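Standup notes
- DV: blocked on the single-chain target, sequence here:
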Amino acid sequence: MILALTEPFLTIIAILAFVIIIGLSISLHELGHLVAAKKAGVLCYDYSVGFGPIIYKKQKGETQYSIRAIPIGGFVQMAGMIDLSSDIKKQPEIGLNFDDEGKITEVVLDLEREAQVRGKVYELDLLGDKGEPMYITLEDVNGNVTQYFVSDNASYVFEKNQRLGLPPYERTVDSKSKPWRLIVFFAGSFMNFVLALIIYLIVSFSTGVANTQSNEIGNITENFPASEVLKSGDKITAVNGNTISSWDGFQAEMEKVYSNYKTSATIKVLRDNEEFEYEIYSRTAFNSFGISDFGSSTKGLVEIPNNPGIYGLELGNVNPVYKNKDDAKDKNIISKGDYLVGISIGGNTYSLNEASYNIDGKNISGFGYLSYLVNKYVGVGAPTIKFEYYHLDNKNTDDKSDDTYTLISFNESKEIEPYTDELLNSQEITKVVHLIGVGATSHFDLFPCIGQAFEMFWTDFTVIFRTLKLLIAPSDVRQVGVSNLSGVVGIFGQIKSYVNTGIIPLLAFAAMLSVNLGIVNLLPIPALDGGKILFVIIEAITRKRVPKKVEAIINGIFMILLLGLMIFVTVNDIMRI
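- DV (later): unblocked, structure below
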């Protein structure tokens, strides 16, 4: 049972869920880098869960493990990821401290901290990538120039005693072979994929798989046509006179109904050893229009309140693009609760109050011709589409018989720009979906449940690439752009919507986010893991490493661009809310 949460409590639970989901996804991502780096022999200074001030820390071996105040995110600090050579050269003065052998143990960048030697950098090599010992050559106030070699356990010392290791070259990421570097950079996303698969397995094992060999109804969706007459536990024995013995058989018969553009089916069920027969109309979603469903009951078309003899389909959830942002009082806005009574496609008009239409030699009765028209025309360079509908003007009471409706004719209504087939197919969305609101019983079956988990993973994995293609590929009709992306605020809003639907949908969403995080980090964009992988691939092809300075400049530029994109997306999220 799903309990409706009050708004304040819902927000608190959503915040906790958001922190756990985002924190877990990013922390495991960084853990993947940490484990792979340690296996490669890279020195790792710090593995942190969260950002900001340290709440708890523990030194284990050469790595500090810490928990920080801002619980969203995390990082792992590996040797060789930061080169401060150019910054040190610009310092007016630095200090050096030494061990008993006279090797540098501390490069002091805090002007107020004591140091055994101070001076201006004359020359230095803090990479050691040419096989030579690392060194710093200082020029003191008297103009004397002295070279000092760096110890294997040296570190930078900043203000407030903040430290960063200065390891020997063989302990840095750069020193490792190309295969090892690829593994280190890929390991973060790999952990995201593993996390997603584990969550999908939990979801699949919890829900089970459809028992397609049974004809028993498992669940019935509230407010759908079947909910008016059918019950969970009913056994479907026939559809339009054809005997049914399994759920596969039931779906096959219903598909015949829909493929022939029928709007209803006669369904016979066995309940408590007694047979019942009902005519049930489908509830149809025309996803091309961005309208989730045209509601219908077991009666099919319903009479519009206060309009005797006029029948229509009640609109369900409506895409926000049909809402006029400039004038909220504009009546020419398609909204939930309106009644569709006609459609105009390419100058031809069709009224739902007509008994049937002859289209392309097909005599289609009821409102099934809508499915035919949408499947044939919409989304494939479709002509102008307009709706004729009764708009809810003023709701006086909860009783619909008192509602006031105004007819919005074709000439008054706004043109509808449908989604293209390319967009719908990329998201695996069917243009027209017919449902009566019944589901099969489910049962646990080990191998089918495992297969279902992998199928869910693969669906989310591939849909991201199809979406990216729509975002960047040339197109005559651009229906997906940067403005459609969601950031932290948008993700929180989605998590909040899932919290009230139950733990299973929320877990499935968390798995999808983890897959997204893994793939986005693998995009060949400098400043991301995919950018680091790209530099390794370029090195393998050209047999020449991209200079550190060039790589740092490119990463810096793209980091600024990514931050700009994040700000844009966040502002967009807030505007949508």
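- Follow-up: The chain is about 35% helix and 30% strand.
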